[in-house]
Structures are given as C-alpha cells and as structure tokens.
Amino acid sequence: MKKKSLLYLLITIFALFALGPKIYKYFFSKKRNLPFQTTTLKQKDIQQTIYASGNLQIKDNIKIGSLIAGTIIDIYVAEGDKVKKGQLLTLIDNGKGDTDVQIAQGTLKKATSQLTYITNHFERQKKLYQTKQLSKDAFEEITNDYNAAKAEVQIAKAELEKKKIEFNNTKVIAPEDGIITKIGITKGMKITTDLDATVLFEMAKDLTKMEAKLDIDESDIGKINKDQIIKFTVDAYQNRKFKGKISTISYSSKQKSNLQTYEAVANVKNKNLSLRPGMTVNAKITINKIKECDILNNQAFQISSQPLKIAAKTLNLKFEPLEKAEKKKLKKVKLEKNQMKFIWCKNKESIIEKAIEVGITDDNSYQVVKGLKPHDQIIIDVDESDDMEKIYKNWFSKGL
Description:
The protein has 400 residues and is α+β, with helices and mostly antiparallel strands. It has helices at residues 2-29, 99-130, 136-168, 305-314, 324-331, 387-396; strands spanning 36-39, 42-58, 61-64, 70-75, 82-83, 88-93, 171-173, 178-183, 190-191, 201-204, 209-217, 229-234, 237-256, 259-269, 280-297, 318-320, 339-346, 350-361, 365-370, 377-382. The protein has a 6-stranded antiparallel β-barrel with strand order 2-11-14-13-12-15. A 4-stranded antiparallel beta sheet has the order 3-10-8-5, with no helix packed on it. The mean pLDDT is 87.
C-alpha cells in the first residue's frame, strides 16, 4: 500500500512538473491583466501653438533730440502730459544768444547797401556804354562788380536764415500732437549733438496703439506668418488675456540665451491704456487648428520594443517589428508638411510595429493623417518590470 501511495505521489509530481507551464498560463497569464495598456484613435479638435516672450513698445514712438549743443535752461512739460504740435518743450542756452543773428543781419544790411550803390553806378555806366562813351572792357568790369554785389546779398540772406534757424533750435518744440512718455534731461544739463547725441524727450502719437516685439526661436520662425493672432499675458495682469496680430517678421537674427531668435512684431490695441511700454509679454501663437480629426497621445511614440517582446512571448503572441532596412527607408521619406512616426499595435495574433503619418501637435497629442484604422488597438504604456515573468522563470526553469 505504501509503495502504491509513493508511486502515485511521484506520478503526480512529474505530472505537475510537465504540465507546469500550461497550468501557469491557464491560472496566471489568462487571468491577469495585460502587461500593457492600449487605446484607439480619438476624434478631437487639435491646435498647434508656439510660445514666445518679448516686450511691449509704443507703435508710433517719436524720439526728440536737439540740433545744437548747449545747456538746458528750463523744461515746460512733464511725463504723461498731452502736447500739441509746435508747443514749447524746453529751452537751450547755446552760449551766444541771438548775437549770430544780429551779426548776420548787419552783414545783410551792408551787402544790400553796397548792392544799391553798385546798381545805381551800373545803370549810369550802362547808358554810357550804349552810347559808345564807355569801352567794352570797362563795362564788363562794372558788370562783374554788379553781379558780385548781388551774390553777396544772396549769401548774406542765406547766412541770416541759417543763424535764425540755429537760434530757433534753442527752442525745442513738439513735432506732432501726442503724449510725453519719457524725459531724458534735467534743468542745467549739458547736451551734445555728436554720435552719442542726447534724447531729450520721447512721445507717443497714440498710446492706444502698441506693439509686442517677440523673440521667436529659429526652429519655429518658419511657422510664423503675417496676420496670425497672438494671445498674451503681462505680469501686471496675470488673470487677463490680451490679443494682437502679427504685422512684421524680421529676417535678421540675434542671440538670446545662446539661442538664435528672430523678431516678430504684433500690433496690439490698448484702448483702456492698461498696457505700458516695457512690460514683459508671454505670448501664445496659434499656428494651426484642425477640428474633429483623429488624434493619438504622445505616449504611443515612446514605447520600448524589449518589454513588448517579453510580453509577446508571455502571451504567446507573434512579435513583428518592422525590418531594419524598411524602417530606415521610411525614416528618410520626406513629407511636405507631415512627418513619419512609429507605433506598436496589438491584434488577436500578434504585437506589430507600424509606420504612420502624423500632422500637427499640441505637445500632448498628434493628428494622425494616415496608417491607422479606427478600431486598431494602439499600445500606449508597457509594464517594464514583469514580476509574473520572474515568478514563472523561478518556478519552472529551475524545477521544484
């Protein structure tokens, strides 16, 4: 009896050992959750955006300087004042007053008097020449003196006009109607007209019209077009959103934080005058928008093949990656607007790699253009630490 019992026990042990993998798959593999998550294509609106920063500036900004050097005598406006065209803003002491004007006036009077005398003399001598009482050489000399006297008067008039302009430039006036936005001088300050000329005032023709000057990364500048709408915030009003429209895109680049950027300018309305020059702009530019299209989460493009290979083996599924040569060839395909990406799908018999064509992205999802069907099971997450696989190996690879 004992021998029979021992024989039954040994038969049972060997049977369990031989049928172990099947028992494991029946009780564990089929019952447990799949070691990955799948999804299908979703229909949703998607929009592609670019983020950029910059500063606000007055659109019609006028910088007022001086054509003469000197010392500021007085300032007649303050920042924020509305001014009219021709209004006096400041007076400059040029160190000479109107003395140059007076000298020029005296020079003109002298030249005019000399011209009057020579004109009378010329008319008398002309009559003598016409009656042949004066030689041709003598008359030509008198004519030359007459023309020179007229030229002296012309020169004296021009010099007087020049000195008047220089003296009038001691009065700095508003070139247009507008608002004084900045004063760069103080009373008693000396100003220059050289290469580093002093900016006396800055004024805006209209503060309700501003510009947002944005730095666009070189990787994004090709997606920016004129008339695109921007939405932006400023630190002063973090809960408010403002709008603008791209008006110009620069072709010259500049370095910003070791990045190559290009400037794009957007027109901004400032009807309630809440925006101010110099404010930092944090902008969002919508470059493309598609309604009700197939989209796929970015997770699908970040799947590693190795854990999928293990999962396929565990689930007794075929594992079908794209051939290296074919995948390399697909990567080189140049699409006009879209790009090629690779994903993994599961069907009843296999885990298979596919190449798909994608369009715009909102940084979370991609628009799927070609390569997938509505009911395709797309793998979006894989459990890379397969504890059940480890148990399986420990139990049935080493024996009991």
